[in-house]
Amino acid sequence: MRDDKIGILxxxxxxxLFFSADPVNPTGARGITFVTSNCVFSEIIPGRAGMxxxxxxxxxxxxxxxxxxxxxxxxxxxFWRTLxxxxxxxxxxxLGDFNIVDMPIDRLPQKDxxxxxxxxxxxxxxxxATGSQSRIDRIYVSRTVxxxxxxxxxxxxxxxxxxxxxxxxVANKQAPYVGKxxxxxxxxxxxxxxxxxxxKRLGSRLxxxxxxxxxxxxxxxxxxxxxRFKSDLISAARKRAKTKIPKMDKQIVQLRENxxxxxxxxxxxxxxxAEALRPEALECCSQAxxxx
Length: 292
Hints:
Blueprint: E1 9-11, E2 18-20, E3 32-35, E4 40-45, E5 49-57, E6 60-68, H1 73-85, E7 93-97, E8 107-108, E9 125-126, E10 133-134, E11 137-141, E12 149-155, E13 165-170, H2 193-212, H3 222-264, H4 279-290
Parallel strand pairs: 6-7
Antiparallel strand pairs: 1-3, 2-3, 4-5, 5-6, 7-11, 8-10, 9-10, 12-13
Helix pairs in contact: 2-3, 3-4
């Protein structure tokens, strides 16, 4: 949550904070969880559905429904009927593990289902025993907030699991503009050999200047020397970032394109380099570059 700056995390396994356990198997893997703060949680169906209600702004509220659909077909029918009968209103976002798909393209191998949009392949769950894949983890938004969402994404998490994490950025477009804040050194540059060499050179120069100081003056004192050192180091880091980051961005785009192709053509023979990697490996490479 910290690394990806996630404000609200809806989980379908047992964690902490706002948790609703399965009444039949409360210590098992079933259950729903919201990981956040400063909001109100309501249990709708124990272990299967829960609502998070929070103040978004002085005149807007955000209501999120987290669901964990049953695997069994008859249980799934009963669950959705029960949820419908709850007459939940003003739901802004519905998300979770639905354990059902909307269309054939959401499952590999495909089965006969309604097919309203047969264009993009993207799977969030892989069954290790059979290798079959499906998109059962999804997010839906209401028309009241559809203009406030962006950056839909599905990524591999740092926690070992057979599910990917689906996410979306929800930003209140009516809120005041908030800038990016002050500049900070990209963490990936701390291990960059070129910048490390420049850091050592500037550090050595600073130590030499401090050793040569004799009489303190407004322009010749430890504080002034350190200020020049910081200014030169920031300039060197920005210059290096302008050279390195575009190359990394290009690699990320290429890896994600290969990942998309790998998802569309699973097990496709041939190819070298990144094209020959499995989608999971490509995702890991892309995540590593994203950590820049």
